[in-house]
Amino acid sequence: MHRFNLLFWVLMLSGFTALQAQNTVTGTVTDNSGETLIGASVFVEGTTTGTVTGIDGDFSLTIPGNAENLMVTYTGFETQRIPLVQGQTVYDIVLSEGVNLQEIVVSGQGVGIERKRLTTTVDVITSEQLELAPVTQLDQILQSRIPGAQIRLSSGQPGTASIIRNRGPLSANGSSTPVIIIDGVRVDNLNSNASLSLDTGGASSSALADIPVESIARVEFIRGGAATTLYGADAANGVIQIFTKKGTAGQARLSGGVLVGSMVGEEKFLRFEETADILFEPGLVQQYRLGVDGGSDKATYNFSGSFYDDDGFNDINSQRRINARFGASAKLNSKLEYNGSAAFSSNYFTRDYNANTSFARFGGIEGGNYGLINEASAGRIDTITQELRLAGELTDITEAVRRFQTSQQLTYKPFRGFTSRLILGLDSRRSRQDEIATNALLISKGAVAEGTADQGSITRATRDFVTFTSDLALGYEFDAGDFTFTTSAGAQLFRNQDEQLLLGGTNLVEGSTSFNNTAERTTTEFFRAIAFGGFYLAENIGYKNKLFLDLGTRWDFNSAFGDDIGLINLKRIGLRYSLTDEAFMQTGSISNIVTRASFRANYGEASNFPTPFARDQVFNSNAYFGLPAYTFGNPGNSELGPEIVKSLEFGGDFSFLRGRIGVNVTYYNTITEDAIFTPAGLPSSGQLAQEANVGEIENKGWEFETNFSIVETKDVDFTVSASLTTNENTVTDAGGSPEFSVGGFTFLGSFVAEGQPLGYLRGALATIDENGEFSAKSNSYLGKPNPDGYGTVGFNLRYKRFNLFASSDYQYGAQGVAVDDVLRYFSGVEDEGRIPEEAAAQAGSFFDLAGYWVEDTDFLKVRNVGLSYNVPVENSTFSYLKIGFNMRNPFIFASSSFDPEVTGAGIGSQGGFAAGGFGYGTESAPKQYLFSIDFGF
Amino acid sequence: MKLIQCIKYGLGVAAIATLTWSCEDPNETFEPTNPNLSSDNVLGTIESSARLLNGTERQLALTMNEIVAPMEIATDNYENTQTFFNQFLDDLAIDPTDRDIEEIQYSIARLRELASAGINDIVPADEGSTDEQLAGFYMLRGVAYLLGGELFTTLPGEPMGPALPATDHLNAAIADFSAAMDLGSNQYSEGALIGRARAYYRLGNKSAAVADATLAIANTPAYVYFARYDGVQGPGNVMQDALWDRGSFDDLQPLPTMDFLDPKYNGATPNVEVNIPLLKIEEAHLILAEAALSDGSLDDAKQIMKNIVGLVATRPVDTFNDGVEGRTQDFPGSRPDNSSIMVAAGPDLPLMSGLVIDRGAEDVTIPTVSGTHYTEDEIDAIDDIDFAYESLYRMRQEIFFAEGRRVTDLGIRLVVSLTEKVGNPNITDADLEPTIPSWLEPIKAEFDAFTYDTGAETATVTNNLNRLISENRGSDLIAPFE
């Protein structure tokens, strides 16, 4: 009987399934504005049966008879569960954008919180926004896309550092680069040369250049201050959170892309067009991407890989990068979910000598080594060209970086409202820089006499950095009627280890690139390790879903703190009131005009930790004629603690005309208390400079973000967005310490002094009185590299299947130094009219003329202009096919004679404060013209 | 389900991998150990005196690096035409905010404090320490005081201490040199004797200076003590960098009368940095010559000067190709650059050949310890005391060329740095005032000036500073025996 029943049911079920398999549902997937969503996943819940929407957002899916729900997912949008209704075959599904207020953001709140409940702001870049322009490097991705942040690229050379800043420079002790977190795991964010690195001029290598940028689903940028209290440690500069794709359910989908184009050197700021003629060469850019994703509603996966290659904009630069990332998500059971990702990146590039070295070719021509080369005879230019081309061919500076990064997350939801999440992960970055200076190179540079055979050398700098993250977060949501509570708690432990070696070999035998073939070898080691972490508790209380109070506190420990410093406590409090959630605001006439009006106020504390081991008193032992040689090392400071950045902000978020106009306004005031200064040791002590918590730095200003949806029709969309951040930065207290230098040169440096902006430009200020008498006051304020204001401007225009977009950024109210022209002055070919005749005649030395080389560095740079077309793919094997053309850095408007972004000097130490503002002997970021094809099957 | 199984296993492997990879030594997970030396690793440990002494000598090399280039630029020896080395000092603008002057003060203090640590802490705790090592510390601290007394009007003699007059520093130097000598005969006590003679000389104590100088010549007739530069491990010689290594950057330019002595430090040999003479027996001879002049004994002085010429002839020279350096300023030929050019050391002095040398394909031969253009015949022709003083100081200029000594001979003294003033309440405004002799004030920006007639192939130095020394030798600032 049982057997009969079983057989009966099997037959019935299979028959039923077979019968029902004939059922097909169709429909479209659109967003709130009616825009079709291409590539959205539509699948039957609990199965691998699924499809993706086509170019018109349409889908057709054959469903099994027992299917109950359709699941519809799309990156950046809320996943929707659509109950299947018997007899209904057409489903038009509308997805809500992920960046709405119901969206869950992580933002230092433990396991995540509804965006609406947040009392601070979070900027989000979605994958769609990222895909507007080809993606190769993180800082380039962020540039002009994050309203509150400024990203300045310091050189056009491959792999170089950028200056990333929001709300002004907070610290004289460290870089302003935010913490970068990928899938909950901290990654190396060193944005300067390592302590031990090649001395090839001002070009600083950056770990940001090789962060794997494959498969980024979204980027959240959390501005430093109250929003980053719970991140503790070094989060005062803000946090960039990157979330990677884990795949969407459905059958395996292939996607890919080809990018081909050209990069050419930026000539706008060249003093001599011959510089471009001699050194620049258009380079081929190519990138190939391939990805596959799929899965069921229980488990999804995503794999993508890419190969990138360019041969630079000059005759010797080239770069090659291989990226691969795997991500997966799985529901292990009804309560336990797993998310994991792993990425590998291999990056290799060649570089020229730069800026602050007499070997620099670019700096040599631009610095007037060849006099007024534009007036030279064709024969002489020919000779110079041959000399420099030969020197280029003989230049051998390479850097190779291999990076592995992974995140492993378990999320456990044992009962309704409670979530716990454990993250383990690491980022391991190994870099190797090599410089081979052969005798032939030295002869070509004029550094040694013809016939020299014993001066060849090889230098290698290696850095092995590992950062480890473990993060446990607990969250509980409780609904008590009018009041709702979100409670978060968590603990974290991070550990960074940085091992560097600088190897030198001299008298390298010609023809070899091995240390084994050198006559003398030297080694220098650098080691730095730090363990830090903390635990936190936060409570977010909502009242009638319109008033939210946010409270949080965190205790931090850190192995860099002095022995007298225990746990550091950080606090925050925030309030948000949503006026438009009041009933009286929701009447038709009002809500049509004021769609959203929400006000927020926050106070919060964030921190930056001191340099690891800076607290310790040590002796150094140097090698001197083959024997140990003791000397005084770091003097030590048992009271060394973190800088505490106290931030107060007020603002509001508004949208009008049903979202056609959006405006965000914030006023911020941050005080860095116990700012770590490292003034020179008291000369009579003979001791080294020591970090101490003696200063105070203030930053204040306004942030405005606006976006306008000017046209919204079926065929045409036109949106414009703009942002402005103002900043006033002052060192309000130097703690009695004398002025100290944080970069630059003896004749004109970047300094820290009470009452002045951080890193202000100090040098002799020249005046000429009415009688033509010249005088120069040394050590005067000449300007500041940090701008009064900066922001972004962009638009997006869609016409049917065409999409045109542009993004740009700007700054005003900053100054910089035309250092190249100082070199030209040495050669007697300085810019005409720069130095008044009286000054030239009467000045004692060029030191007295320093002020004449300081210029305003206002600029507007168009970073990207892109045009794309979605090719109709009905009745083809493609699920989508997009072709595009993109111009990178196409237009620049600047008030200065040099590129205001590039800086060949100014970062004094590893991860040190970067003032920028020294336009010196390095090329600007190149222009690029890129064709792309993206497709999916 | 297979996928889930794979992920489960993957998760386990990845978690274990992350944990093991990132923490090599579990004991150091939360408290990473600083790999550098704590005080406990140094005090009372084996070889601690030897290692600190070696480190103090290394500091001497670093201190001379801070002193020599800017001090040479400040005088008529070198002109800083196109480099990022100090330009203010080229015009003798001595300012308390000058970072180079601060570095000089700092590096002298560091030398003194390292030596003091040796004398007071390390040697007493080191059972294996020797008298020679202790003598070394005393001698090196004596050098620190000596340099402070020669270069500064006033200067703190201890951390946070008041700025003491130069005489206090010179007396402290004498005490330390004497202490070194009391510890028996060794390389340091020999140097201490010359150092003490130099300190007595600067104090104007003629009899003591002459006694020490005479003894030193008798004991160590060829003595030189160098600030030593390690061409492999560093430090390198910064003055060598300024004179030679800077490749296509134009380097420091010597006064045409000193061309034949440049570059005293060259990088022609791989991994070799040329050492800077700090204490050498020439010092003793020059003291005796000046003492003879101050006694009115012209013939004795001339004989001593001839002895010096003989001594210099025994000193080492380097022969190397200097074609890369050339002798250009803005363009080739803008400065005297070949041996056919005749140079006069002052407007009323005769043109001489041999002061400018050829630097092309032919190798040059340059003294690395001492050089002088003087010959016995030229010395024989000196016929009055005034010109003898002028000649003796020109000889001093040549013999101490590129050693940072000229600035003291000219009577110039540096100031206490503003950084010290900010952090040290004992510093007064008076300590921030430089000393520049009144006769130099009007021409302080023109020390390096000369006229150059390319057609006639002649060059004449505009300001004969040795003449000014001779004329003003009654001043307390210069010519200490007068």
What does this structure look like?
The complex is a heterodimer of chains A (about 950) and B (about 475). By secondary structure, chain A is mainly beta. Chain A has two domains: about 25-95, Sandwich (Immunoglobulin-like); about 105-305 and about 315-635 and about 645-680 and about 690-735 and about 785-815 and about 855-935, Beta Barrel (Maltoporin, Chain A), CATH 2.40.170. Chain A has a 22-stranded antiparallel β-barrel. In chain A, a hairpin with a 6-residue loop joins strand 5 (about 70-75) and strand 6 (about 80-85). Chain A is globular. Chain B has two domains: about 1-40, no CATH class; about 45-470, Serine Threonine Protein Phosphatase 5, Tetratricopeptide repeat (Alpha Horseshoe), CATH 1.25.40.390. Helix content of chain B is about 45%, strand content about 10%. Chain B has 15 helices and eleven strands. Chain B has helices at about 1-20, 50-75, 100-125, 130-150, 165-180, 185-205, 205-220, 240-245, 280-295, 300-315, 375-380, 385-400, 405-410, 420-425, 465-470; strands at about 80, 155, 165, 225, 255, 275-280, 315-320, 340-345, 365, 450-455, 460. The chains are: A mainly beta (about 950), B mainly alpha (about 475).
Under CATH at level 1, the class of the largest domain in chain B stands as Mainly Alpha
Report low-confidence residues of chain B grouped into runs of 5 or more: none
Poorly predicted tracts of residues of chain A: 1-21, 98-102
Distance between the termini of chain A: 49 Å
End-to-end separation of chain B in angstroms reads: 102 Å
Helix percentage range of chain B: 40-55%
Give me the side-by-side strand order of the main sheet of chain B. 8-11-10
Number of domains of chain B: 2
Brief sketch in words of this structure:
The complex is a heterodimer of chains A (937) and B (482). By secondary structure, chain A is mainly β.
Essential attributes:
heterodimer; A: 937 residues; mainly beta; Immunoglobulin-like; Maltoporin, Chain A; 2 domains; 22-stranded antiparallel β-barrel; 5-stranded mixed sheet; 9% helix; disordered N terminus; B: 482 residues; mainly alpha; Serine Threonine Protein Phosphatase 5, Tetratricopeptide repeat; 3-stranded mixed sheet; two-stranded antiparallel ribbon; siderophore uptake transmembrane transporter activity (chain A); Beta-barrel_TonB (chain A); tonb box (chain A); TonB-dependent receptor (chain A)
